């Protein structure tokens, strides 16, 4: 995403700011309501945004792409000091690592299923062994249902 934060001192309407990021204006209004974006100064009843708002929107957009939720972003961006902000990012990083490990394990299982020569993969000894290996790699604070019932309901 190529983002133009604007020139120092330049003011924009909500539509202009949203367009810079490929967003609809209502998204910025929602972020204001959530406390993520400080409401802009009004001129003749219309919001006006500056480069600081543009930088904040960029942080929110990239934070969402990194997997942060809106509440997490607000807590991180509004943290009272840099060390608290860094601690919040570290917590998110650990959660992201767990999700990546879980996704990798799921990918391995799906790849086996797609190549499995046994008609019913749930009866395949290799699949059962892989499922057991995956279960031992999943972090202890995560519950995963590896039963055949769960596999049949995944795509619903």
Descriptive notes:
Helices cover 59% and strands 4% of the residues. The chain has 156 residues and is mainly alpha-helical. Strands 1-2 form a two-stranded antiparallel ribbon. A hairpin with a 2-residue loop joins strand 1 (41-43) and strand 2 (46-48). Helix 5 (82-115) packs antiparallel against helix 6. The longest helix is centred in the middle third of the chain and has 34 residues, at 82-115. It is elongated, with a radius of gyration of 23 Å. The relative contact order is 0.08. The model is unreliable at 1-5 and 142-156 (pLDDT under 50).
Summarize the structure.
This protein has 156 residues and is mainly alpha-helical. It has helices at residues 14-20, 25-33, 51-65, 70-77, 82-115, 125-137, 148-153, and strands at 41-43, 46-48.
Descriptive key words:
156 residues; mainly alpha; two-stranded antiparallel sheet; 7 helices; 2 strands; 59% helix; disordered N terminus; disordered C terminus
Can you count the helices? Answer: 7
Order of helices and strands: HHEEHHHHH
The main sheet comes to: 2 strands, antiparallel
* Beta-strand residue percentage: under 5%
* Protein structure class: mainly alpha
Radius of gyration: 23 Å
Report how far the terminal alpha carbons are from each other: 33 Å
User: Which sequence of strands runs across the widest sheet?
Assistant: 1-2
* Dominant shape: elongated
**Beta-strand segment tally:** 2
Poorly predicted runs of 5 or more residues: 1-5, 142-156
Mean pLDDT across residues:
81
What fraction, in percent, of the residue positions are helical? 55-70%
């Amino acid at each position: 995403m190529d983002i133009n934060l604007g020139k120092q001192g330049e003011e924009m309407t909500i539509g202009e700011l949203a367009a810079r990021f490929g967003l609809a204006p209502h998204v910025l209004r929602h972020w204001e309501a959530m406390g993520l974006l400080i409401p802009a100064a009004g001129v003749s009843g219309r919001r006006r945004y500056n480069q600081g708002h543009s930088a904040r929107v960029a942080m929110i957009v990239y934070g969402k792409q990194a997997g942060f939720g809106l509440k997490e972003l607000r807590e991180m961006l509004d943290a009272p000091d840099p060390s608290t902000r860094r601690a919040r990012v570290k917590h998110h990083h650990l959660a992201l690592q767990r999700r990546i490990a879980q996704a990798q394990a799921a990918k391995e299982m799906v790849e086996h299923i797609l190549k499995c020569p046994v008609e019913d993969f749930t009866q395949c000894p290799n699949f059962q062994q892989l499922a057991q290996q995956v279960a031992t790699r999943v972090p202890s604070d995560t519950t995963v249902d590896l039963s055949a019932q769960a596999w049949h309901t995944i795509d619903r």
